[in-house]
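Friendly challenge for the regulars: who can give me the structure tokens for this chain first? No prize, just bragging rights.
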Amino acid sequence: MGNSGKTMIPFMAFAGLMLLAGLWSGLIRLGWILPDPGAGLADSHGALMVGGFLGTLIGLERVGAVRRLWAYGAPLFAALGGLAVLGGVRAGVGEAFLLLGSLLLVAIFVALVSRHRSAPLITMALGAALWAVGNWLWLL
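First reply, four minutes later:
Bragging rights claimed.
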């Protein structure tokens, strides 16, 4: 993973896109009169911010800590889930991608906690696990 800086650039771009879309959808939810490109963008605010933006960004940050190629699946599936939600692809596709991303983030934290047990890591692992539970419930 020697070239990880360049590898992270597309993920950062996806995270930035999800942040902007999440902020846009939040403004629509607040009652601002802004173009809604369809697909109920205002209803997707939470998924875009938590799943698309934070899931991609936190997953990417944890890839640097675990230093394993498989870990890139967490930000990848979070970004794909956010894009599916943003694009209005429903029928469980975005939810399934976000669930996969959150489960991989849990796996990353399991690997990290097994190396170094600390309260902050355990707390973050619990947060990832709760995110996975939330995504699973949303998928149902």
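Residues 95 and 137 are 9 Å apart (CA to CA). Residues 4-139 form one domain. Your move, everyone else.
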